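During the second year of the project, the team shifted from modelling isolated chains to modelling whole assemblies. The rationale, set out in the original proposal, was that interfaces cannot be judged from single-chain predictions alone. As a representative example for this report, we include one of the complexes processed in the last quarter. Its constituent sequences, exactly as entered into the pipeline, are reproduced here:
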Amino acid sequence: MIEQNFEPKIVAFCCNWCSYAGADLAGTGRLKYPENVRIIRVPCSSRVEVQMIMRAFQNGADGVMVAGCHPGDCHYDTGNYHTRRRMMLLQSLTSFLGMDPDRFIVKWISGNEAAKFKSTVEEFNETLKKLGPADKVRDQRCGI
Amino acid sequence: MRVGVFICWCGSNIKNMVDVEKVAKEAEKMPRVVYSQDVQYLCSEVGQADISKAIDEHKLDRIVIGACSPRMHESTFQQLLESKGLNPYYVEIANIREQCSWVHTDKDKATVKATELVKKAVAKSYHAIPLTSDLLKVNKKALVIGGGIAGIQAALDIADAGYPVDLVEQKPSIGGRMAQFDKTFPTLDCSACILTPKMVEAATHENITLYTYSEVENVAGYVGNFKVKIKQKAKSVKQDICNGCGDCMEKCPKKVANEFDEGNSKRKAIYTLFPQAVPNKPVIDRDNCIYYKTGKCGLCEKICPTKAIDYNQEDEIVENEYGAIIAATGFDIKDPQDLSEYYYGNHPDVITSLELERQLNASGPTSGKVIRPSNGKTPEKIVFVQCVGSRDRNKGNAYCSKVCCLYTAKHTLLLNEKFPETESYVFNIDVRTGGKGYEEFYERARHKGAKYLRGQVSKVEPLGDADNKLLVRGYDSSIGEQVEIEADLVVLATSIEPKVGSSKIAGLLGLSSDSDGFFSEAHPKLKPVETQAQGIYLAGVCQGPKDIPEAVSQASGASAKAIILFNKGEVKSVPTTAMVNEEICSGCMQCKPVCPYEAISREYVTERVAGKEVKRPVASINRALCQGCGACAGLCRSGAMDIGGFTSKQIMAEVDTL
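Output from the structure prediction step:
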């Protein structure tokens, strides 16, 4: 049963140089998006470990996003290529776990794509609202 | 551990959407927080003094700031901590402005979110570890990429400060776009008269080495210590022997379109770019030379009095080391053929502004006469079309090319001066004249008779009469009517675009580009010449459309940044580098191939196991090379690899506050 007025929790791992800057630019441009996203700043999307994503799901996240620079535009030359490979693997693992693969997304958002940041969060939020709370790997001791 | 929390109002920027007092109160309840306060402006001197006082009074050793983005003021607070004797990495910032108050509309929800962001930052601060940076020596030599006016100015400034500079230009001569211009606005100075002395100065300066007909092939290293490979294309003329007499160019039988005149004249296969080229010695264009195609000819070799022709010369790769790099790669002009309504390419009398500029130039294809390319006669009615490919997302570029309004005013004035009988009509969206003396200049153009029609041209088509005239249809919004003008010549003010190939340079230098392809500066307001890559600076139109004075000032700004770096002589290395926990590391070296800086190598540690000494492999980080991306840490299976400032513990602590 999907509860009424369900507000999903979103954790977004954003690379400092592109997506985090894009989120900042969304702020500077006063673009509006849902409150339920929590951004965690990382130097590069390739810094994100798989266990960080799983831990977020365990702790009550309904959706996790990893966002980095566009392929070819990585501040560190090649970081996002590693991200792409690693996260593709994780994507298939989430379905293996029985989780809806739509709960975990990888996006390329550059420092000037404020509008893309906004629309990505909005769309993700809508998807998660339809999917309802994620309790497959949630640690029930969290009390959520 | 004693954590202090400071919540900034940012005037009304945060306070209007977030209940800052409430956030500060909530923060007090968080574990290990011993002090919490809200402050009007944390970045101000008063705000800083408040933090400083609280550190003393409450013996704080971790500071959490709830304010604007860490990309904005992290270093401000780090410096404050350093001055208080605390490690600068003991400060943690919760971004409650850009990522909260500015993007949300519900005050209650925004306050809850701000509190959670502060909680996240507090949790991260528990695991902060002190970080230090090393001092790295700076190689006091600069590389300037691009020999246009911006590149020349940057090179001259650095050279005048006493540091050696290498100036790389892909064409056979420096000078760039400005060398093509006839006059400059708003003073109508002769472009060559003010540019060529600078070109000569750059060529003869003892601290400047010119690499013309050369390209940057590879860039490695980091601020203060770049290693750059430059490819010098074979000129096929021994530059040290050639005396520049020009006999070879006269005798060469092969004629090709002259790119310097926008294809409106011919040059030889052995050529100098223009008469005042620097260096003024010819090169052989191998793509067009008969000798390279058929093995026959060799006329230039026969005629050369100093035996300077060398058909077997090869491309040469030189490898140099630099402390700073300035990118000044310039621009290209949009090809208006994509915009079929202007009929460009289908009628010889539709030309671009740059082609008109070359016509006006005394050393151009028409020796300074303005003609209709179709019949060589002086045009009587000229229609100028503004914003061709600019300011229209659907037909080219969304941005304004910035200089077209002024150079078109210049063209009408020059035409009026040289050919008073010509009539000039200017179709424009609106006229933009930001700049000293620019509005007056535009007024002068109107006063002298240029007719400005506010509206856009919908179609240019041949009239089909004996004179081969053009019919320009457009809309004049000031009278609210469609207008038709029978023109002899149509001049298109085509959009400025990033230089073809600049994305390759961006890739080599690790620069990011904006959505239009211009290089991105580090901060649009406060760091307009720096880039996100330390030690690499920007000058000129490669960063965005600008006129000559702006390009020159940016070049001087960029060179000042390089000079500051050289004067210091040392740079601080990135403190947030990778760290290896040797006790856990198994030496699998999976991290080595993912490192983009080749900063990881295999080392051996000696241990005593069961009474015996054994050597065990572990990964080791070269801290001077590491930039702290974390690709290695993201992949390490044993969790032995970590990134200072972004350790697994820190990020996990953030995740755990959900």
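The first helix of chain A runs from residue 19 to 28. Chain A has a mean pLDDT of 91.
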